[in-house]
Amino acid sequence: MMYDIFIMTMKNLTENAPFSLGNGYNEADRLALTAVRMLAVDMVEKAKSGHPGMPLGAAPMAYVLWTQFLKHNPKDPGWINRDRFILSAGHGSALIYALLHLAGYDLSIDELKNFRQWGSKTPGHPEAGHVPGIECTTGPLGQGFAMGVGMALAQEKLSRAFDREAFPVMEHFTYGIVSDGDLMEGVASEAASLAAHNKLGRLIYLYDDNKISIEGSTSITFTEDVERRFAAYGWHTQRVSDGNDLAAIEAAITTAQRVTDKPSLILVRTHIGFGSPKQDTKEVHGEPLGADAMKATRESFDWPHGPFQVPDAALNPWRQCLERNARYQQDWKTLWNNYCEKFPQDGAELIRRLKGVLPTGWDKDIPAFTKDAPGSATRESSGVIMNAISKYVPELVGGSADLAPSTKTWLKDRKEANLNFGVREFAMGAAVNGMAMHGGFIPYGSTFLVFSDYMRGAIRLAALQKAHSLFIFTHDSIALGEDGPTHQPIEHIASLRAIPGLVVLRPADANETAAAWRVAMTLKRPVAFALTRQKVAVLDDATGKIAQGAAKGAYILQDSDSPAEIVLIATGSEVHTALEACKILTAGGRHARVVSMPSWELFSEQPASYQDTVLPPTLKRRLSIEAGSTMGWHRWVGSEGDTIGIDHFGASAPAGVLLEKYGFSAEHIAQRALKLLNR
User: Is 574 a catalytic residue?
Assistant: First the structure.
């Protein structure tokens, strides 16, 4: 009886036309739009899992964007000048899968039916790499918003570098649909401020303003004036009062496109779960509609077709869109060919960068550091090295969270490559990911290692989507000194190593730092550097052993003349202390091997034969030395080994005092080694 009343009410509303599609839209558009809605809820219903409410409410704005504005070609999804679309509200993934299918991407009905199931191309939240058309991985709210800022930054920088008068070869837009939850997240605030400061006029977001969150009405948590908030940041803002008014949405996007000096936010008042009996309730946010409600929803949209059935009439606008976008791309190809004829070097360079191919000789000016060179902090060595690389690799761009003088990440001869992220660590990390996913750049962001906590979500997402993002962390231990425990990282390296797919590099000296940079530039996945504040001596690499070994993650830095009794395994600045401890042991008639292990991840990827050469299974007396958490080190030292680390917070004192007090002296390490040998 309840659903009968609902159907009658919906029919009355339709007859009174309060949800008119607007001028210029017709029955074909209604069918094509309804196909988006019904495919989305069919996916959720079949999976018995997902979020039907957002697709039902936001489908109209998505339909207008995809059919009237978004320049892309499903037959050539890698087209370099395509517009980028981000569903920041990734929980509404059924919406983008429906769009991709209808738009002509390689996403079959069978894949829609396999929504959220093992091995499908339609996971619960959009994941880059699963199907063409997903530009980046979203779901953790706010990060899609921030990655879009990075994509818009990438477009703006490529346009400045390559566009010529009458040849706008890199003029595309970044669009996104964002939710209440996105805008509640702090990273969105950081990123919104950054976007406005950089005047990213080709960034346009549609805000799905449906007033409902998982716990209920947003009135319980989110009562700010979003429009005034974004206007205060410096965004261009508009309101669309009826989220079903396609003409009004179209007009708003058209206006936004004309604003060239500000990013745009279009606030679209929608109704979550529109057309279903659960409309405007929290129940429609994150659970299937159920059989009865599905039947009622179909009737409310006058959709007599069964699950996953789309009539030809509903496909016609999508086919027209496909043809129109093919023409767009063809027009661009003509422009591109003329561009390459007139500017052949620029054309070749842009293609090289977008393909991710490093230029020949990119590393030829990386200096070789000799043992008699004065010691330097690895942050300083890193700064020298990245500047040497930057001369030949214009795609290397980035900046810091207001710490470039300390992190040594300023590119001196390429001011245009330097980004000022401000004290916005999370947005910096997400924007770096967005630039990496856009293509054409190897981006980096830097801050102190302890502040990696503020951007951990972005680091994790970089790993999940295999973004070639570089995270440069300095001040990597208690040797930071007087700033005290708030600034001294303890658990941070261990926590970064816990992220699957992230390569952590903690080099011991300038030569290992050079090797780390060679790895980072060529690895095609995210890398995190951990670099010292304090000076460290240059290790002797006359034979090239360090360069080769560091690239493998671990190597024998020093071995005993006689068969080793114990292995000292160290990273970063502690390698030098391990070498001193080895001298003490040798003087006492004991035989020790020193292994430098700048990267657990790289060493883990080496063949077992190499690993056994460095850490022989029969050599069970092993002692790890690292000025941080000991968590995870038993993997390498084994049940008969031991660890020297710090499993507590530090203190404010000069670096030398702290290292001595916490057991990082050669004498203490030698004593611990002897104790281990005498068990």
Answer: no
